[in-house]
Amino acid sequence: MKELNIIKIGSAIIDDKLLFEKFLYQFESLNGMKILIHGGGKKATKWSKKMKIPIKIIDGRRITNLKTLELITGVYAGQINKDIVSKLQCRKINAIGISGVDGNLIESVKRPVKKINYGYVGDIIKVNSKLLLNLLNIGCIPVISPLTHDNNGQILNTNADTIACEIAISLSKKFNVNLYYCFDMKGIMKSLNDPKSLIENIDKNHYKFLLNNNILSKGILPKTKTAFYALENGVKKVLIGQSEMINNKIKHTKIIL
């Protein structure tokens, strides 16, 4: 099978001009088929503050009421997505910006209320991998923003790490899929303030130990959880770290079963 690289970038890269330029260079030089998935939480938070919309985030997940949903739809699928696509186009990379709503790419269900009411947040139930295959086959690189829909006209906010994971799984039947979670840290760290504390390989037992001892930061939890799930469901490789890792230039964290 052919190789497919799926790269997810977070808002720490998007909001930092230097890190974003570094990422674009690495992405441009990465050969073969590729898909880019982006978040944008920091920019959404900035706009929420400007518009005086209350912000509540629990374990890395944004509580999404209707006002927040309107804001993130414009920020994620509009401002951020089109900015990324335009910067790829000027590098002669033929990218197409879409969300999970477009082309019925990702269908989800509104998360049920249990201990926490997350509001208009979607849990993925179906990925239209055929759409992505068609885009890849005509030479378009999909750039995907983290919105999905419930097939009843409702847009839902959906975690970008989870979207990257589910898309990677859906395409693992057709490709050997490498999934990269790119952000501003070297990888999973024992201490955020100590660059030497990078964990280069992490298995489930090590992950549980770190989790039980509150060593992991809240922001890394969704990435790590989805990384193991991806490997368990057909994805070939999952790496977490800075953008240079996608071309094997720096140390990073490799998730292993």
Written overview of the protein:
- This protein is an alpha/beta fold and 257 residues long.
- It contains eight helices and 14 strands.
- The chain has helices at 11-14, 17-29, 41-50, 66-89, 129-137, 160-171, 204-212, 221-232; strands at 3-9, 33-38, 57-58, 61-62, 95-99, 106-110, 122-127, 141-145, 147-149, 155-157, 176-182, 201-202, 237-241, 253-255.
- The strands form four sheets. The chain has an eight-stranded mixed sheet, with helices on both faces. A two-stranded antiparallel ribbon has the order 3-4.
- Strand 9 (147-149) and strand 10 (155-157) form a beta hairpin.
- Helix 3 crosses helix 4 (66-89) and helix 6 runs parallel beside helix 8 (221-232).
- The longest helix is centred in the first third of the chain and has 24 residues, at 66-89.
Describe how the helices and strands are arranged.
Blueprint: E1 3-9, H1 11-14, H2 17-29, E2 33-38, H3 41-50, E3 57-58, E4 61-62, H4 66-89, E5 95-99, E6 106-110, E7 122-127, H5 129-137, E8 141-145, E9 147-149, E10 155-157, H6 160-171, E11 176-182, E12 201-202, H7 204-212, H8 221-232, E13 237-241, E14 253-255
Parallel strand pairs: 1-2, 1-11, 2-8, 5-8, 11-13, 12-14
Antiparallel strand pairs: 3-4, 6-7, 9-10, 13-14
Helix pairs in contact: 3-4, 6-8
How many individual helices? Answer: 8
Strand arrangement in the largest pleated sheet = 5-8-2-1-11-13-14-12
Our Rg estimate from Cα atoms comes to 17 Å
Beta-strand proportion: 15-25%
Shape: globular
